[in-house]
Amino acid sequence: MSSSPKILGGVCPDEGCQAKVMFPSYEASVECNRCGQRFQATSIKNVAEVKDQAVALRTVLRSLISSSNPGLKKGPEMVM
């Protein structure tokens, strides 16, 4: 049985974003896929180990898909 790194989940510290973020325990900094900012892992709010790896994978994939489709974002540049 191999030992894989723990997957941690938390909340983006940006008050306007508050997206769920997932990251490996060994990462020193974390990029939020919603707002695009990079934060120190220690600044992520409500960090907890994700026990269900399938949930972690779905969350990461959902974040990547939504961040790669600019039509889903509703930033100031998209509002007329």
From TrEMBL:
Pfam families, sorted: VCIP135_N
Annotated InterPro entries: VCPIP1, VCPIP1_N
Domain Deubiquitinating protein VCPIP1 N-terminal as annotated: residue spans: 4-79
Protein name per its UniProtKB record: Deubiquitinating protein VCPIP1 N-terminal domain-containing protein
